[in-house]
Design brief:
With 141 residues, the protein is mainly α. The chain has a single domain (2-116), classed as Winged helix-like DNA-binding domain superfamily/Winged helix DNA-binding domain (Arc Repressor Mutant, subunit A, Orthogonal Bundle), CATH 1.10.10. The chain has 7 helices and 2 strands. It has helices at 2-22, 24-29, 34-42, 49-56, 60-72, 94-115, 120-138; strands spanning 76-81, 84-92. The chain has a two-stranded antiparallel ribbon with strand order 1-2. Helix 3 (34-42) packs across helix 5 and helix 4 crosses helix 5. The two termini are 23 Å apart. Keywords: DNA-binding.
Amino acid sequence: MRDDAAQLWSLNQRLLTVVLDACRDELADLGIDTKEFFVLAEVATSPYPAELAATLMMPKASVTVYVRNLVAKGLLRREIDDADLRRHRLVLTDEGAAARERAVTALAAEFDRRLARITARDRGELRRILLDLLSDEEEGG
């Protein structure tokens, strides 16, 4: 059973990697790499650098580098948090939101291209299974 779980985890990871690799040129056209995309994708739900690092399971120093790059590219900006003037909150610029949307669209199209290989019923079942697997996370762990 353990080998089954490891194989499923590995297959899932390989699928995600293949989809990201297939979209590398689109991301490059946007001026971002895959790690920077993950930052753009999560910053709205995790707007503080330390929180973002935890969400992405990346070292804080790495997130700092990605944030610095994205700020320099005009895709993110730092704002002082009105609730706590000692903290900076990260906010997508209009350009950052547009880049994120274009990247998500490219990734979704590539993933959809792969999903087209299975029936609509299997797609629905896959969605149900993935939601079930995430239910602990959605309920707070």
